[in-house]
Amino acid sequence: MPAPRVFSGIQPTADSFHLGNYLGAVRQWVTMQETHDAIYCVVDLHAVTVPQDPKQLRQRTRVAAAQLFAAGLDPDRCTVFVQSHVPEHTELSWVLGCLASFGELSRMTQFKDKANRGGAQQASLGLFSYPVLQAADILLYQTDQVPVGEDQRQHLELSRDLAIRFNHRFGETFTVPAPYILGSVAKITDLQEPTLKMSKSSSSPQGIIDVLDDPAAIRRKVGRAVTDAGSEVRPDEAEKPGVTNLLRIYSGLTGQSIDDLVSRYAGAGYGTFKKELAEVVVEGLTPIRERTEKLLADEAGLDKMLAHGAERARPLARQTMTAVMDKIGFLLGSPRS
Protein backbone atom coordinates (compact mmCIF):
# COMPACT_ATOMS: atom_id res chain seq x y z
CA MET A 1 0.00 0.00 0.00
CA PRO A 2 1.48 3.38 -0.96
CA ALA A 3 2.44 5.79 1.78
CA PRO A 4 -0.06 8.62 2.36
CA ARG A 5 0.85 11.80 0.53
CA VAL A 6 1.46 14.92 2.59
CA PHE A 7 1.89 18.50 1.36
CA SER A 8 3.06 21.61 3.16
CA GLY A 9 4.68 24.92 2.29
CA ILE A 10 6.62 27.74 3.88
CA GLN A 11 6.92 31.37 2.83
CA PRO A 12 10.24 33.04 1.89
CA THR A 13 9.38 36.29 3.65
CA ALA A 14 12.40 36.61 5.98
CA ASP A 15 16.16 36.21 5.94
CA SER A 16 15.93 33.19 8.24
CA PHE A 17 13.37 30.81 9.68
CA HIS A 18 12.89 31.34 13.38
CA LEU A 19 12.96 28.74 16.13
CA GLY A 20 9.16 28.45 16.16
CA ASN A 21 9.15 27.60 12.43
CA TYR A 22 11.83 24.99 12.98
CA LEU A 23 10.34 23.23 16.01
CA GLY A 24 6.72 23.62 14.96
CA ALA A 25 7.04 22.58 11.32
CA VAL A 26 10.36 22.00 9.57
CA ARG A 27 11.84 19.48 11.97
CA GLN A 28 8.63 17.47 11.85
CA TRP A 29 8.64 17.59 8.05
CA VAL A 30 12.03 15.88 8.19
CA THR A 31 10.54 13.03 10.22
CA MET A 32 7.54 12.73 7.92
CA GLN A 33 9.66 12.10 4.82
CA GLU A 34 10.35 8.65 6.32
CA THR A 35 6.67 7.73 6.67
CA HIS A 36 4.91 9.69 3.90
CA ASP A 37 5.11 10.55 0.23
CA ALA A 38 6.14 14.06 1.21
CA ILE A 39 5.89 17.16 -0.98
CA TYR A 40 7.23 20.45 0.39
CA CYS A 41 7.17 23.82 -1.29
CA VAL A 42 8.71 27.27 -0.88
CA VAL A 43 5.55 29.27 -1.56
CA ASP A 44 6.91 32.35 -3.30
CA LEU A 45 3.54 33.10 -4.94
CA HIS A 46 2.03 33.55 -1.50
CA ALA A 47 4.86 35.89 -0.57
CA VAL A 48 3.82 38.52 -3.10
CA THR A 49 0.39 39.12 -1.55
CA VAL A 50 2.21 42.01 0.16
CA PRO A 51 4.88 44.23 -1.44
CA GLN A 52 8.25 42.53 -1.96
CA ASP A 53 11.58 43.71 -3.30
CA PRO A 54 12.35 41.44 -6.31
CA LYS A 55 16.04 40.97 -5.51
CA GLN A 56 15.26 40.26 -1.87
CA LEU A 57 12.49 37.79 -2.74
CA ARG A 58 14.83 35.86 -5.03
CA GLN A 59 17.48 35.68 -2.30
CA ARG A 60 15.02 34.75 0.43
CA THR A 61 13.58 31.97 -1.74
CA ARG A 62 17.03 30.41 -2.00
CA VAL A 63 17.67 30.94 1.72
CA ALA A 64 14.40 29.23 2.61
CA ALA A 65 15.15 26.27 0.35
CA ALA A 66 18.70 25.97 1.67
CA GLN A 67 17.43 25.86 5.24
CA LEU A 68 14.97 23.08 4.37
CA PHE A 69 17.73 20.95 2.91
CA ALA A 70 20.12 21.88 5.74
CA ALA A 71 17.54 20.85 8.34
CA GLY A 72 17.45 17.36 6.85
CA LEU A 73 15.04 17.22 3.93
CA ASP A 74 16.51 14.80 1.39
CA PRO A 75 15.69 15.56 -2.28
CA ASP A 76 15.78 11.84 -3.00
CA ARG A 77 13.30 10.97 -0.24
CA CYS A 78 10.88 13.86 -0.63
CA THR A 79 9.96 16.49 -3.19
CA VAL A 80 11.14 20.04 -2.48
CA PHE A 81 10.49 22.79 -5.03
CA VAL A 82 9.57 26.43 -5.55
CA GLN A 83 5.86 27.10 -6.06
CA SER A 84 6.23 29.43 -9.06
CA HIS A 85 8.19 26.72 -10.93
CA VAL A 86 4.96 24.72 -11.31
CA PRO A 87 2.41 26.93 -13.16
CA GLU A 88 -0.47 24.57 -12.42
CA HIS A 89 -0.72 26.13 -8.95
CA THR A 90 -2.06 29.36 -10.41
CA GLU A 91 -4.17 27.57 -13.03
CA LEU A 92 -6.01 25.55 -10.40
CA SER A 93 -6.30 28.57 -8.13
CA TRP A 94 -8.37 30.37 -10.78
CA VAL A 95 -10.73 27.41 -11.17
CA LEU A 96 -11.19 27.02 -7.41
CA GLY A 97 -11.64 30.76 -7.03
CA CYS A 98 -14.65 30.48 -9.30
CA LEU A 99 -16.16 27.99 -6.84
CA ALA A 100 -15.34 29.91 -3.66
CA SER A 101 -17.77 32.55 -2.47
CA PHE A 102 -16.96 36.09 -1.46
CA GLY A 103 -18.68 35.46 1.86
CA GLU A 104 -16.59 32.49 2.92
CA LEU A 105 -13.35 34.22 1.98
CA SER A 106 -14.45 37.33 3.89
CA ARG A 107 -14.75 35.20 7.03
CA MET A 108 -11.13 34.04 6.94
CA THR A 109 -9.63 35.25 10.20
CA GLN A 110 -6.08 35.63 8.86
CA PHE A 111 -7.26 37.96 6.11
CA LYS A 112 -9.25 40.02 8.58
CA ASP A 113 -6.25 40.28 10.92
CA LYS A 114 -3.82 41.32 8.16
CA ALA A 115 -6.29 43.66 6.51
CA ASN A 116 -7.04 45.35 9.81
CA ARG A 117 -3.32 45.99 10.36
CA GLY A 118 -2.78 47.47 6.89
CA GLY A 119 -6.24 48.84 6.14
CA ALA A 120 -8.90 46.74 4.42
CA GLN A 121 -9.20 49.16 1.51
CA GLN A 122 -5.50 48.76 0.75
CA ALA A 123 -5.47 44.95 0.97
CA SER A 124 -4.72 43.24 -2.34
CA LEU A 125 -6.96 40.78 -4.13
CA GLY A 126 -4.11 38.31 -3.73
CA LEU A 127 -4.24 38.64 0.05
CA PHE A 128 -8.01 38.17 -0.01
CA SER A 129 -7.83 35.07 -2.21
CA TYR A 130 -4.72 33.65 -0.50
CA PRO A 131 -6.68 30.69 0.95
CA VAL A 132 -7.83 29.68 -2.55
CA LEU A 133 -4.24 29.46 -3.78
CA GLN A 134 -3.43 27.50 -0.64
CA ALA A 135 -6.27 25.11 -1.47
CA ALA A 136 -4.87 24.72 -5.00
CA ASP A 137 -1.44 23.92 -3.55
CA ILE A 138 -2.94 21.09 -1.53
CA LEU A 139 -5.48 19.66 -3.99
CA LEU A 140 -3.12 19.75 -6.97
CA TYR A 141 -1.15 16.82 -5.57
CA GLN A 142 -4.11 14.69 -4.45
CA THR A 143 -2.89 15.21 -0.92
CA ASP A 144 -4.08 12.78 1.74
CA GLN A 145 -2.89 14.70 4.79
CA VAL A 146 -1.85 18.28 5.57
CA PRO A 147 0.23 19.16 8.63
CA VAL A 148 -1.66 21.91 10.40
CA GLY A 149 -1.41 24.08 13.43
CA GLU A 150 -4.46 25.75 14.93
CA ASP A 151 -3.92 28.94 12.91
CA GLN A 152 -4.21 27.04 9.59
CA ARG A 153 -7.19 24.85 10.45
CA GLN A 154 -9.71 27.26 8.88
CA HIS A 155 -7.78 27.32 5.59
CA LEU A 156 -7.67 23.52 5.47
CA GLU A 157 -11.42 23.40 5.98
CA LEU A 158 -11.82 25.65 2.93
CA SER A 159 -9.61 23.26 0.93
CA ARG A 160 -11.81 20.35 1.97
CA ASP A 161 -14.99 22.29 1.14
CA LEU A 162 -13.72 23.23 -2.33
CA ALA A 163 -12.67 19.64 -3.08
CA ILE A 164 -16.07 18.33 -2.05
CA ARG A 165 -17.85 21.09 -4.00
CA PHE A 166 -15.90 20.37 -7.19
CA ASN A 167 -16.37 16.60 -6.85
CA HIS A 168 -20.10 17.01 -6.32
CA ARG A 169 -20.52 19.32 -9.32
CA PHE A 170 -18.17 17.72 -11.83
CA GLY A 171 -17.53 14.17 -10.59
CA GLU A 172 -14.85 12.63 -8.39
CA THR A 173 -11.62 14.46 -9.10
CA PHE A 174 -9.89 15.54 -5.91
CA THR A 175 -8.76 13.67 -2.82
CA VAL A 176 -10.36 15.37 0.18
CA PRO A 177 -7.40 16.12 2.47
CA ALA A 178 -7.41 15.30 6.16
CA PRO A 179 -5.52 17.21 8.83
CA TYR A 180 -2.29 15.70 10.09
CA ILE A 181 -1.93 16.86 13.66
CA LEU A 182 1.71 17.62 14.29
CA GLY A 183 3.49 16.20 17.30
CA SER A 184 3.05 17.85 20.65
CA VAL A 185 5.43 20.77 20.17
CA ALA A 186 3.84 23.59 22.10
CA LYS A 187 3.68 27.07 20.63
CA ILE A 188 6.99 28.91 20.91
CA THR A 189 6.46 32.48 22.06
CA ASP A 190 8.34 35.78 21.89
CA LEU A 191 11.34 35.92 24.24
CA GLN A 192 10.50 39.51 25.17
CA GLU A 193 6.69 39.22 25.12
CA PRO A 194 6.09 35.60 26.17
CA THR A 195 2.31 35.85 25.94
CA LEU A 196 2.63 36.42 22.16
CA LYS A 197 3.54 33.89 19.48
CA MET A 198 7.09 34.16 18.10
CA SER A 199 6.51 35.85 14.75
CA LYS A 200 8.53 37.80 12.19
CA SER A 201 5.61 40.16 11.67
CA SER A 202 5.00 41.10 15.29
CA SER A 203 8.06 40.20 17.37
CA SER A 204 11.02 42.48 18.01
CA PRO A 205 14.45 41.23 16.83
CA GLN A 206 15.38 40.44 20.42
CA GLY A 207 12.21 38.36 20.81
CA ILE A 208 13.12 35.95 18.01
CA ILE A 209 15.79 33.27 17.82
CA ASP A 210 16.62 32.84 14.15
CA VAL A 211 17.82 29.49 12.84
CA LEU A 212 20.70 31.34 11.14
CA ASP A 213 21.72 33.38 14.20
CA ASP A 214 25.37 33.00 15.18
CA PRO A 215 26.19 31.55 18.62
CA ALA A 216 26.90 34.95 20.17
CA ALA A 217 23.48 36.27 19.12
CA ILE A 218 21.73 33.16 20.45
CA ARG A 219 23.48 33.41 23.83
CA ARG A 220 22.66 37.11 24.07
CA LYS A 221 18.97 36.63 23.22
CA VAL A 222 18.48 33.71 25.61
CA GLY A 223 20.37 35.55 28.34
CA ARG A 224 18.11 38.59 27.96
CA ALA A 225 14.89 36.58 27.63
CA VAL A 226 12.13 37.77 29.94
CA THR A 227 11.66 35.56 32.97
CA ASP A 228 9.26 35.99 35.85
CA ALA A 229 9.00 36.76 39.54
CA GLY A 230 10.94 34.42 41.81
CA SER A 231 13.72 32.09 40.71
CA GLU A 232 12.01 28.70 40.52
CA VAL A 233 12.29 26.94 37.15
CA ARG A 234 8.82 25.50 36.64
CA PRO A 235 6.01 25.82 34.08
CA ASP A 236 3.07 28.06 34.86
CA GLU A 237 1.25 29.67 31.92
CA ALA A 238 -0.38 32.34 34.08
CA GLU A 239 2.37 33.24 36.52
CA LYS A 240 5.52 32.23 34.64
CA PRO A 241 4.92 32.52 30.86
CA GLY A 242 8.56 33.44 30.17
CA VAL A 243 10.05 30.46 31.99
CA THR A 244 7.35 28.19 30.56
CA ASN A 245 8.37 29.22 27.04
CA LEU A 246 12.06 28.60 27.74
CA LEU A 247 11.22 25.16 29.14
CA ARG A 248 9.31 24.36 25.94
CA ILE A 249 12.29 25.37 23.83
CA TYR A 250 14.65 23.24 25.93
CA SER A 251 12.29 20.26 25.78
CA GLY A 252 11.64 20.68 22.05
CA LEU A 253 15.34 20.68 21.16
CA THR A 254 16.46 17.88 23.49
CA GLY A 255 13.44 15.63 23.79
CA GLN A 256 13.64 15.80 27.59
CA SER A 257 10.30 16.15 29.31
CA ILE A 258 9.49 19.38 31.09
CA ASP A 259 9.04 17.43 34.33
CA ASP A 260 12.59 16.09 34.01
CA LEU A 261 13.89 19.61 33.35
CA VAL A 262 12.09 20.94 36.42
CA SER A 263 13.77 18.25 38.52
CA ARG A 264 17.16 18.93 36.95
CA TYR A 265 17.05 22.66 37.65
CA ALA A 266 15.40 22.53 41.07
CA GLY A 267 17.16 25.15 43.18
CA ALA A 268 19.49 26.18 40.35
CA GLY A 269 17.89 29.54 39.54
CA TYR A 270 17.29 31.28 36.24
CA GLY A 271 20.91 32.15 35.52
CA THR A 272 22.16 28.58 35.34
CA PHE A 273 19.06 27.44 33.48
CA LYS A 274 19.33 30.14 30.80
CA LYS A 275 23.06 29.66 30.36
CA GLU A 276 22.66 25.93 29.72
CA LEU A 277 19.60 26.49 27.52
CA ALA A 278 21.62 28.87 25.35
CA GLU A 279 24.18 26.11 24.73
CA VAL A 280 21.39 23.66 23.86
CA VAL A 281 20.07 26.11 21.25
CA VAL A 282 23.56 26.79 19.87
CA GLU A 283 24.25 23.07 19.59
CA GLY A 284 20.90 22.45 17.86
CA LEU A 285 21.04 25.29 15.33
CA THR A 286 24.73 25.70 14.48
CA PRO A 287 24.90 22.63 12.18
CA ILE A 288 21.87 23.89 10.25
CA ARG A 289 23.39 27.35 9.86
CA GLU A 290 26.68 25.91 8.64
CA ARG A 291 25.00 23.59 6.12
CA THR A 292 22.80 26.46 4.92
CA GLU A 293 25.84 28.66 4.31
CA LYS A 294 27.50 25.86 2.37
CA LEU A 295 24.43 25.35 0.17
CA LEU A 296 24.08 29.08 -0.50
CA ALA A 297 27.75 29.28 -1.49
CA ASP A 298 26.93 26.94 -4.41
CA GLU A 299 23.98 28.79 -5.93
CA ALA A 300 23.98 26.75 -9.13
CA GLY A 301 23.95 23.52 -7.16
CA LEU A 302 21.04 24.71 -5.00
CA ASP A 303 19.06 25.78 -8.05
CA LYS A 304 19.69 22.35 -9.57
CA MET A 305 18.25 20.68 -6.46
CA LEU A 306 15.13 22.85 -6.74
CA ALA A 307 14.81 22.11 -10.46
CA HIS A 308 14.96 18.40 -9.61
CA GLY A 309 12.08 18.90 -7.17
CA ALA A 310 10.00 20.80 -9.74
CA GLU A 311 10.59 18.04 -12.28
CA ARG A 312 9.17 15.54 -9.79
CA ALA A 313 6.19 17.75 -8.93
CA ARG A 314 5.12 18.80 -12.45
CA PRO A 315 3.83 15.43 -13.74
CA LEU A 316 1.62 15.06 -10.65
CA ALA A 317 0.35 18.61 -11.03
CA ARG A 318 -0.26 18.24 -14.77
CA GLN A 319 -2.20 15.01 -14.30
CA THR A 320 -4.58 16.68 -11.86
CA MET A 321 -4.93 19.84 -13.94
CA THR A 322 -5.69 17.86 -17.11
CA ALA A 323 -8.47 16.03 -15.28
CA VAL A 324 -9.85 19.31 -13.93
CA MET A 325 -9.88 20.97 -17.35
CA ASP A 326 -11.58 17.96 -18.91
CA LYS A 327 -14.26 17.78 -16.19
CA ILE A 328 -15.05 21.49 -16.48
CA GLY A 329 -15.35 21.37 -20.26
CA PHE A 330 -12.25 23.23 -21.41
CA LEU A 331 -10.82 22.20 -24.76
CA LEU A 332 -7.65 20.26 -24.12
CA GLY A 333 -4.80 21.58 -26.24
CA SER A 334 -1.43 20.03 -26.96
CA PRO A 335 0.14 18.36 -23.93
CA ARG A 336 2.92 20.34 -22.30
CA SER A 337 6.44 19.09 -22.33
Q: Class by helix and strand content? A: mainly alpha
Extended strand count: 5
Uncertain residue ranges:
none
**Number of discrete helical segments:** 14
The strand line-up of the biggest sheet is: 1-2-3
Describe this structure in words.
By secondary structure, the chain is mainly alpha-helical. The protein is built from 14 helices and five strands. The strands form two sheets. It has a three-stranded parallel sheet with strand order 1-2-3. It has a two-stranded parallel sheet with strand order 4-5. Helix 4 runs parallel beside helix 14 (299-328), helix 10 packs antiparallel against helix 13 and helix 11 (241-254) crosses helix 13. The longest helix is centred in the last third of the chain and has 30 residues, at 299-328.
Task: Please provide a brief summary of the model.
The protein has 337 residues and is mostly helical. Helix content is 54%, strand content 7%. The two termini are 30 Å apart.
Q: What are its keywords?
A:
337 residues, mainly alpha, three-stranded parallel sheet, two-stranded parallel sheet, globular
Draw up the topology in text:
Elements: E1 5-10, H1 19-32, E2 37-42, H2 44-47, H3 54-71, E3 79-82, H4 88-97, H5 102-106, H6 109-118, H7 125-128, H8 130-139, E4 145-148, H9 153-170, E5 178-181, H10 215-223, H11 241-254, H12 258-264, H13 269-297, H14 299-328
Parallel strand pairs: 1-2, 2-3, 4-5
Helix pairs in contact: 3-13, 4-8, 4-14, 8-9, 10-13, 11-13
